[in-house]
Design a protein that fits this description.
This protein is α/β, with parallel strands linked by helices. The chain folds into 2 domains: 302 residues, Alpha/Beta hydrolase fold, catalytic domain (Rossmann fold, 3-Layer(aba) Sandwich), CATH 3.40.50.1820; 127 residues, Four Helix Bundle (Hemerythrin (Met), subunit A) (Up-down Bundle), CATH 1.20.120. It has 17 helices and 8 strands. An 8-stranded mixed β-sheet has the order 1-2-4-3-5-6-7-8, with helices on both faces. Helix 7 crosses helix 10, helix 8 packs antiparallel against helix 9 and helix 11 packs antiparallel against helix 12. The longest helix is centred in the C-terminal third of the chain and has 29 residues. The radius of gyration is 23 Å and the shape is globular. The N terminus is likely disordered. This is Lysosomal Pro-X carboxypeptidase. One of its GO terms (biological process) is proteolysis. Belongs to the peptidase S28 family.
Length: 489
């Protein structure tokens, strides 16, 4: 086995990474909306597990089952006799087919992680793991949607892993769970709830502290603002000043029609809010997925700052739209009436337990004031589903308050990886908890960047971030196999 990382080297790396200082908010998926995933590799085999609908009750209806999809890549499997490791990727709020082609962390690092098997599991109620009809039907069924929760999801993962280890005769194979964004939250929570199943977790861009007012409401938009300001002070000022210009024009007779013409909308704007929501989303997505080598924030600001001299403020903002979205005959700024599976599912999850209070004040970001109101949010959820959200449940069930004081006493083997250009890093774990609960972050990183497929154009800081994560996981394996050997003597 590979030797465990020396404490001295880890400490040296900690100086570099620990102290170096979705879609719009709501969705946490690691999949950039502009990325078109390739087809799933031929190395993957798809299976379905007969999953328990309700792991926590014993009523007759709780014993209903559904087919849960999981995918295995055994190309590098060393076999049960070698106690080869198992890596389990946790799906999040979307189909696995969107994630697997771009989540390259495991396959890229196969030679350095010893022979292992990869298992990717679909989150219940998403993709092909929807019980009893379509997701739309499930969400509208008040007797079924209550089983759509994170606790049920990680219990699913536990049951599948136990089943597969038995099926593979791999009871002594160590399991590492990996996830990005919401999947990263699930991975860290799984390690806390099921330490007897997984020896460690890599939680990429997991904002587990963006609940119950642990993180300031404006954390997300503060990072978006900083990203643009660091890219260009003039770009930041243009965006900051544009909102009042839009409002002033919208208040004039035929002002909305004028805005529609200036921004070449595919259909006439109904209100100025449609335009502002579009721009809000564009800036947030550009910051959240500010991946190399393109760096979308730089692209947007390049358009804004590169507009011809004398261009008015709306013209400069539109130039940023064109730079980001490309030259088009028109730009669709109205929200689609068709609800994707992700939007349907995530709407329910955030209206039940995953209440992430993202808001902003009047002068703390480059955006107009939009404070989060729990009362308004609760009324909206009541209108949609007839149930109020539970904003304190995540911290009650998984923890979050006083996280350093609590986790250093009972948690181990969790990597919380982040890129500080990711707005969701504001709700991530950025402080060292203990020698084995570690934050690994980079100044220029963005959402889930470390677990995406590597490229020859990757900057050195990203290569190093992944290398650090690999070496820490190697250390976990070394300790596990040493303990296993001791027990077998």
């Amino acid at each position: 086995m590979k030797h465990q990382i020396s404490f001295g080297w880890l400490l040296l790396l900690s100086v570099t990474f620990f102290t170096t200082v979705s879609s719009a908010p709501g969705r946490l998926s690691p999949v950039h909306p502009k990325i078109k995933p390739a087809s799933v590799s031929e190395d993957f085999e798809t299976f379905f597990y007969t999953q328990t609908l309700d792991h926590f009750n014993y009523k007759p209806e709780s014993y209903r089952t559904f087919q849960q999809r999981y995918i295995i890549n055994s190309k590098h499997w060393g076999g049960a006799e070698e106690n080869a490791p198992i890596f389990a990727y946790f799906g999040e709020e979307g189909p696995l087919d969107e994630d697997l082609p771009i989540i390259g962390f495991l396959n890229d690092n196969a030679p350095r992680l010893t022979l292992r098997i990869n298992i990717s599991k679909q989150h219940r109620f998403y993709g092909k793991s929807v019980p009893f009809g379509t997701l739309d039907e499930v969400i509208n069924d008040e007797n079924t949607r209550g089983y759509f929760s994170s606790a049920q999801a990680i219990a699913d993962y536990a049951e599948v892993l136990v089943y597969l280890k038995e099926k593979l005769s791999a009871q002594n194979s160590p399991v590492i769970v990996i996830g990005g964004s919401y999947g990263g939250m699930l991975a860290s929570w799984f390690r806390l709830k099921y330490p007897h199943i997984a020896i460690g977790a890599l939680a990429s861009s997991a904002p587990i502290l963006y609940f119950d007012n642990i993180t300031p409401q404006d954390g997300y938009y503060s990072v978006v603002t900083n990203d643009f300001r660091e890219a260009s002070e003039s770009c930041y000022e243009t965006i900051r000043n544009s909102w009042s210009v839009i409002d002033e024009l919208a208040s004039r007779p035929n002002g909305i029609s004028f805005l529609s013409q200036r921004f070449k909308t595919c259909s006439p704007l109904g209100t100025s809010s449609e335009l502002k929501d579009y721009l809000d989303t564009m800036y947030a997505v550009a910051a959240q997925y500010n991946h190399p080598p393109t760096y979308p924030v730089t692209v947007v600001c390049g358009g804004i700052d590169g507009a011809p001299e004398g261009t008015d403020i709306l013209g400069r903002i539109f130039a940023g739209v064109v730079a980001y979205g490309g030259e088009r005959s028109c730009y669709e700024m109205k929200k689609s009436n068709s609800a994707s599976q992700t939007n349907l599912g995530w709407s329910w999850q955030t209206c039940s337990e995953l209440v992430i209070p993202i808001g902003r004040g009047s002068n703390d970001t480059m955006f107009p004031s939009a404070p989060f109101s729990l009362n308004d949010f609760a009324n909206s959820c009541m209108s949609k589903y007839g149930v109020p959200p539970r904003p304190h449940w995540v911290t009650t069930y998984y923890g979050g308050h006083d996280i350093k004081l609590v986790l250093q006493r009972f948690a181990s083997n969790i990597i919380f990886s982040n890129g500080l250009r990711d707005p969701y890093s504001s709700g991530g774990v950025l402080e060292k908890i203990s020698d084995s609960v570690l934050p690994i972050y980079t100044v220029n990183g963005s959402h889930c960047l470390d677990i995406l497929t590597s490229s020859q154009s990757d900057p050195q800081w990203l290569v190093m971030q992944r290398q650090v994560e690999i070496e820490i996981i190697r250390g976990w394996f070394a300790k596990y196999y040493a303990d296993l050997h001791t027990l077998q003597i």
